Amino acid sequence: MSIDLKTDGRFYEPEEMVRANCQDCIGCCDCCTGMGDTIVLDPYDVRMLKNNCGKTMEQLLQQGLLSLGMAGGLILPHIQMNPETDCCPFLSDEGRCSIHAYRPGICRLFPLGRNFEDGKLTYILLTDECKKQNRSKIKVSQWIGIKPAEKYHNFILEWHTFRKNLTALLAMSEEARIKEILMLVLKTFYYEEWLDEGDIFAVLSEKIKEMEKRLGMGYTTE
Ligand code: SF4
Ligand code: SF4
């Protein structure tokens, strides 16, 4: 993926149509190779992987499927490309995603990107990134494919805001405190198991609020 990403200049709402539909990527797996540490996972992504792969966070790391790395000043998990093939470890020999139904949010989005501005989340179309010609139009929320779409959208915005505010807090903290907070966030959102009684987004939202309160971050949504 290039660093200078081109878009069509538009900012799409979740219910708008966008020319992103590459017809199931048939015959192409370009964005499943050579992605480095860019497929950063949020707590929902990891929860889906753990539940559907039947593995703990520790096992996902030990088995070389995920790694931990720095992302925006935090230690967060990302998909670990196979060091020999430079392919995603979830890419099958047939060039298909073996975890398609519970693949991470970043994989779902492509060739869309997220735009966070003025406390709002919209979507952009990365016009030169998908190799597939003649992409058809599809509703943004349908392309992402996580239900309920509105709750997922709100979670992504809340998680982004939390990360941004946390980064600001860390910038003002002593080294020992920074380590403590980074470990606490990893443990709470990625390692720990929790019950959600069918509404994972409500649980995640509550966990974010609890963490904000615990760290004295307030409830800003900017
Ligand atoms: S998780 Fe699936 S869609 Fe995402 S990079 Fe890996 S193989 Fe591709
Ligand atoms: S480049 Fe486009 S068609 Fe190819 S895998 Fe990525 S999204 Fe699918």
Q: How would you sum up this structure in a few lines?
A:
With 222 residues, the protein is α+β, with helices and mostly antiparallel strands. It is 37% helix and 15% strand.
* N-to-C series of helices and strands: EHHEEHEEEHHHH
Span of the ends, CA to CA? 29 Å
Proportion in helices: 25-40%
Class by alpha and beta content? alpha+beta
- Low-pLDDT stretches are none
Major sheet details: 2 strands, antiparallel
Hetero groups in this structure are: iron/sulfur cluster
Strand runs, count: 6
Using the CA coordinates, give the radius of gyration.
Answer: 18 Å
If you had to describe this structure to a student in words, what would you say it looks like?
It is a single chain. The strands form three sheets. A two-stranded antiparallel ribbon has the order 1-6. Strands 2-3 form a two-stranded antiparallel sheet. The mean pLDDT is 94. Helix 5 (149-171) runs parallel beside helix 7. It has helices at residues 43-53, 57-62, 105-109, 140-144, 149-171, 175-191, 200-214; strands spanning 17-21, 66-71, 74-79, 112-117, 120-125, 136-139. The protein has two domains: 17-145, no CATH class; 150-214, no CATH class. It is α+β, with helices and mostly antiparallel strands. One iron/sulfur cluster binds at residues 22, 25, 28-31, 110-111, 130-132.
Characteristic terms for this protein:
binds iron/sulfur cluster; globular; 7 helices; alpha+beta; two-stranded antiparallel sheet; 6 strands; 2 domains; 37% helix; 222 residues
